[in-house]
Amino acid sequence: MTPFAQAVLVIRWFCDATRVRCLAGDNAISTATAYRYLHEGIDVLAAAAPGLHGALLAARTAGHTHVNLDGTLIATDRCRALGLTPGVDLWWSGKHRRHGGNIQVLTAPDGWPLWTSDVRPGREHDTRCARTHPGLLEGLAAFTDDTHAALGDLGYEGEADRLTVPIKLAPGRGQTVNQRTVNTLHSALRALAERGNALLKTTFAALRRVTLCPWRTGAITAAALVLLHTEYDRTT
Predict the structure, then answer these.
(1) What 3 state SS string does 19-46 have?
(2) DSSP state, 192?
(3) Chain centroid to CA 230: how far?
(4) Where are the domains positioned within the chain?
(5) What is the rounded distance in angstroms from the CA atom of residue 119 to the CA atom of residue 95?
Protein backbone atom coordinates (compact mmCIF):
# COMPACT_ATOMS: atom_id res chain seq x y z
CA MET A 1 0.00 0.00 0.00
CA THR A 2 1.46 3.37 -1.00
CA PRO A 3 1.75 6.31 1.41
CA PHE A 4 -0.80 8.18 -0.71
CA ALA A 5 -3.31 5.34 -0.43
CA GLN A 6 -2.76 5.19 3.33
CA ALA A 7 -3.31 8.95 3.61
CA VAL A 8 -6.57 8.63 1.66
CA LEU A 9 -7.65 5.81 3.96
CA VAL A 10 -7.02 7.94 7.05
CA ILE A 11 -8.74 11.04 5.65
CA ARG A 12 -11.78 9.02 4.57
CA TRP A 13 -12.10 7.70 8.10
CA PHE A 14 -11.85 11.18 9.61
CA CYS A 15 -14.15 12.99 7.19
CA ASP A 16 -16.79 10.32 6.55
CA ALA A 17 -16.31 7.91 9.48
CA THR A 18 -16.06 5.14 6.89
CA ARG A 19 -16.12 1.70 8.45
CA VAL A 20 -12.67 0.18 8.71
CA ARG A 21 -13.98 -3.01 7.13
CA CYS A 22 -15.00 -1.01 4.05
CA LEU A 23 -11.64 0.77 3.96
CA ALA A 24 -9.94 -2.62 4.07
CA GLY A 25 -12.05 -3.96 1.21
CA ASP A 26 -11.48 -0.89 -0.95
CA ASN A 27 -7.71 -1.30 -0.57
CA ALA A 28 -7.61 -5.10 -0.80
CA ILE A 29 -6.05 -5.49 2.65
CA SER A 30 -7.15 -7.26 5.80
CA THR A 31 -9.19 -5.48 8.46
CA ALA A 32 -6.34 -5.85 10.95
CA THR A 33 -3.94 -4.19 8.52
CA ALA A 34 -6.42 -1.38 7.89
CA TYR A 35 -6.64 -0.73 11.63
CA ARG A 36 -2.85 -0.66 11.85
CA TYR A 37 -2.58 1.83 8.99
CA LEU A 38 -5.33 3.96 10.55
CA HIS A 39 -3.63 4.11 13.94
CA GLU A 40 -0.30 4.92 12.28
CA GLY A 41 -1.92 7.83 10.46
CA ILE A 42 -3.58 9.11 13.63
CA ASP A 43 -0.27 9.01 15.51
CA VAL A 44 1.63 10.84 12.75
CA LEU A 45 -0.96 13.61 12.58
CA ALA A 46 -1.33 13.93 16.35
CA ALA A 47 2.44 14.29 16.71
CA ALA A 48 2.24 17.44 14.57
CA ALA A 49 -0.42 19.08 16.76
CA PRO A 50 0.58 22.30 18.55
CA GLY A 51 1.53 22.10 22.20
CA LEU A 52 -0.12 24.25 24.85
CA HIS A 53 2.86 26.56 25.33
CA GLY A 54 3.23 27.07 21.59
CA ALA A 55 -0.49 27.72 21.14
CA LEU A 56 -0.55 30.35 23.89
CA LEU A 57 2.61 32.00 22.58
CA ALA A 58 1.13 32.09 19.07
CA ALA A 59 -2.09 33.58 20.43
CA ARG A 60 -0.19 36.35 22.17
CA THR A 61 1.94 36.98 19.07
CA ALA A 62 -1.20 37.15 16.93
CA GLY A 63 -2.52 39.92 19.17
CA HIS A 64 -5.39 37.99 20.73
CA THR A 65 -6.63 39.75 23.85
CA HIS A 66 -8.10 36.58 25.26
CA VAL A 67 -8.48 32.86 24.72
CA ASN A 68 -11.42 30.63 25.58
CA LEU A 69 -11.30 27.30 27.37
CA ASP A 70 -14.22 24.95 26.96
CA GLY A 71 -14.81 21.25 27.42
CA THR A 72 -16.62 19.11 24.89
CA LEU A 73 -17.82 15.53 25.03
CA ILE A 74 -16.74 13.25 22.19
CA ALA A 75 -19.24 10.41 22.12
CA THR A 76 -18.02 6.83 22.26
CA ASP A 77 -19.70 3.46 22.01
CA ARG A 78 -17.59 2.03 24.83
CA CYS A 79 -20.00 1.59 27.74
CA ARG A 80 -18.78 -1.19 30.01
CA ALA A 81 -15.68 0.21 31.70
CA LEU A 82 -15.71 0.16 35.49
CA GLY A 83 -15.50 3.59 37.12
CA LEU A 84 -14.53 4.73 40.59
CA THR A 85 -18.17 4.82 41.66
CA PRO A 86 -19.82 1.39 41.89
CA GLY A 87 -22.48 0.97 39.22
CA VAL A 88 -21.35 4.00 37.19
CA ASP A 89 -19.48 3.44 33.93
CA LEU A 90 -16.17 5.26 33.60
CA TRP A 91 -17.14 6.92 30.32
CA TRP A 92 -20.72 7.83 31.26
CA SER A 93 -21.40 11.58 31.35
CA GLY A 94 -24.27 12.40 33.66
CA LYS A 95 -24.49 15.90 32.21
CA HIS A 96 -24.87 14.75 28.60
CA ARG A 97 -26.60 11.46 29.42
CA ARG A 98 -24.33 9.48 27.12
CA HIS A 99 -20.95 7.79 27.02
CA GLY A 100 -17.98 9.81 25.85
CA GLY A 101 -14.63 11.40 26.59
CA ASN A 102 -14.00 14.95 27.80
CA ILE A 103 -11.68 17.05 25.63
CA GLN A 104 -10.57 20.53 26.67
CA VAL A 105 -10.45 22.90 23.69
CA LEU A 106 -8.59 26.21 23.65
CA THR A 107 -9.91 28.70 21.10
CA ALA A 108 -9.09 32.15 19.76
CA PRO A 109 -11.50 35.07 20.35
CA ASP A 110 -13.40 34.20 17.15
CA GLY A 111 -13.74 30.56 18.16
CA TRP A 112 -10.94 29.12 16.02
CA PRO A 113 -9.51 26.04 17.79
CA LEU A 114 -5.88 26.50 18.81
CA TRP A 115 -5.18 23.46 20.99
CA THR A 116 -6.89 20.32 22.24
CA SER A 117 -6.09 18.27 25.30
CA ASP A 118 -5.76 14.57 25.88
CA VAL A 119 -8.96 12.75 26.77
CA ARG A 120 -10.44 12.24 30.19
CA PRO A 121 -13.39 9.95 30.99
CA GLY A 122 -16.80 11.53 30.47
CA ARG A 123 -17.73 11.15 34.14
CA GLU A 124 -15.24 13.91 35.04
CA HIS A 125 -16.38 17.54 34.99
CA ASP A 126 -14.47 20.34 33.28
CA THR A 127 -12.67 21.63 36.36
CA ARG A 128 -11.28 18.22 37.23
CA CYS A 129 -10.24 17.62 33.63
CA ALA A 130 -8.47 20.98 33.48
CA ARG A 131 -6.64 20.23 36.72
CA THR A 132 -5.60 16.81 35.46
CA HIS A 133 -3.89 18.04 32.29
CA PRO A 134 -0.27 18.93 33.16
CA GLY A 135 0.47 22.63 32.89
CA LEU A 136 -2.91 23.67 31.48
CA LEU A 137 -4.09 25.95 34.28
CA GLU A 138 -0.55 27.11 35.00
CA GLY A 139 -0.07 28.03 31.35
CA LEU A 140 -3.33 29.96 31.24
CA ALA A 141 -2.42 31.77 34.45
CA ALA A 142 0.92 32.78 32.91
CA PHE A 143 -0.90 34.00 29.79
CA THR A 144 -3.17 36.24 31.87
CA ASP A 145 -2.12 39.80 32.65
CA ASP A 146 -3.62 43.30 32.49
CA THR A 147 -4.26 43.00 28.74
CA HIS A 148 -4.83 39.25 28.30
CA ALA A 149 -7.41 36.92 29.80
CA ALA A 150 -8.44 33.27 29.72
CA LEU A 151 -12.22 32.90 29.72
CA GLY A 152 -14.20 29.93 30.97
CA ASP A 153 -17.81 29.20 31.86
CA LEU A 154 -19.18 28.35 35.30
CA GLY A 155 -17.94 24.80 34.84
CA TYR A 156 -14.57 26.21 35.91
CA GLU A 157 -15.78 28.23 38.89
CA GLY A 158 -13.39 26.27 41.11
CA GLU A 159 -10.50 27.88 39.24
CA ALA A 160 -11.79 31.45 39.27
CA ASP A 161 -8.42 32.65 40.55
CA ARG A 162 -6.76 31.58 37.29
CA LEU A 163 -9.62 31.84 34.79
CA THR A 164 -12.13 34.62 34.18
CA VAL A 165 -15.55 33.09 34.82
CA PRO A 166 -19.04 34.60 35.20
CA ILE A 167 -20.28 35.79 38.57
CA LYS A 168 -22.43 33.04 40.06
CA LEU A 169 -25.84 33.97 41.39
CA ALA A 170 -25.85 33.50 45.16
CA PRO A 171 -28.85 31.57 46.57
CA GLY A 172 -31.61 33.90 47.67
CA ARG A 173 -29.84 36.98 46.37
CA GLY A 174 -30.13 38.87 43.13
CA GLN A 175 -27.30 40.32 41.09
CA THR A 176 -26.43 43.97 40.95
CA VAL A 177 -26.52 45.91 37.71
CA ASN A 178 -22.73 45.82 37.56
CA GLN A 179 -22.66 42.05 38.05
CA ARG A 180 -25.24 41.50 35.32
CA THR A 181 -23.26 43.76 33.01
CA VAL A 182 -20.07 41.81 33.68
CA ASN A 183 -21.83 38.51 32.97
CA THR A 184 -23.37 39.86 29.76
CA LEU A 185 -19.99 41.01 28.48
CA HIS A 186 -18.39 37.73 29.49
CA SER A 187 -21.08 35.71 27.70
CA ALA A 188 -20.75 37.80 24.55
CA LEU A 189 -17.00 37.25 24.42
CA ARG A 190 -17.00 33.58 25.38
CA ALA A 191 -19.97 32.45 23.29
CA LEU A 192 -17.80 31.98 20.21
CA ALA A 193 -15.84 29.28 22.03
CA GLU A 194 -18.60 26.87 21.03
CA ARG A 195 -17.64 27.47 17.40
CA GLY A 196 -14.36 25.64 17.93
CA ASN A 197 -16.11 22.49 19.12
CA ALA A 198 -18.65 22.72 16.32
CA LEU A 199 -15.96 23.17 13.66
CA LEU A 200 -14.18 20.01 14.72
CA LYS A 201 -17.31 17.88 15.00
CA THR A 202 -19.05 19.08 11.85
CA THR A 203 -15.91 18.85 9.72
CA PHE A 204 -14.90 15.38 10.89
CA ALA A 205 -17.61 12.76 11.21
CA ALA A 206 -15.22 10.54 13.17
CA LEU A 207 -15.50 12.95 16.11
CA ARG A 208 -19.26 12.58 16.35
CA ARG A 209 -18.86 9.07 17.75
CA VAL A 210 -15.50 7.41 18.27
CA THR A 211 -15.63 3.69 17.60
CA LEU A 212 -12.01 3.02 18.52
CA CYS A 213 -10.73 2.68 22.08
CA PRO A 214 -11.98 5.79 23.94
CA TRP A 215 -8.49 6.41 25.33
CA ARG A 216 -7.49 7.18 21.72
CA THR A 217 -9.93 10.10 21.57
CA GLY A 218 -7.28 12.65 22.56
CA ALA A 219 -4.95 11.61 19.74
CA ILE A 220 -7.86 11.48 17.29
CA THR A 221 -8.95 15.01 18.22
CA ALA A 222 -5.38 16.32 17.98
CA ALA A 223 -5.05 14.73 14.55
CA ALA A 224 -8.33 16.32 13.46
CA LEU A 225 -7.03 19.69 14.67
CA VAL A 226 -3.95 19.32 12.45
CA LEU A 227 -6.14 18.47 9.45
CA LEU A 228 -8.36 21.49 10.17
CA HIS A 229 -5.37 23.82 10.44
CA THR A 230 -3.98 22.43 7.19
CA GLU A 231 -7.27 22.66 5.30
CA TYR A 232 -7.82 26.32 6.20
CA ASP A 233 -4.11 27.23 6.30
CA ARG A 234 -4.60 28.82 9.70
CA THR A 235 -3.21 28.00 13.12
CA THR A 236 -4.10 31.12 15.12
Answers:
(1) CHHHHHHHCCCCHHHHHHHHHHHHHHHH
(2) T
(3) 17
(4) 3-47, 52-213
(5) 17
Q: Whole-prediction pTM value?
A: 0.92
Q: Phi, psi (5° rounding) for residue 103?
A: -120, 130
The answer to whether residues 99 and 76 touch, using CB atoms and an 8 Å cutoff, is yes
- Condensed to tens digits (0 to 9), the pLDDT of residues 21-69 reads 999 999 999 999 999 999 999 999 999 999 999 999 999 999 999 999 9
* Residue 201 CB coordination number (10 Å): 18
Asked if 122 contacts 96 with a C-beta cutoff of 8 angstroms, the reply is yes
Evaluate whether 49 touches 103 at the Cβ level (below 8 Å). no
| 219 burial type by CB count under 10 A (0-12 exposed, 13-18 middle, 19+ buried) | buried
